[in-house]
Amino acid sequence: MALILLEALAALVVLALIVWWTMFSGRKEEEEEEPACAVHDKDETAAEETKRNT
Question: pTM for the complete prediction?
Answer without folding.
Answer: 0.47
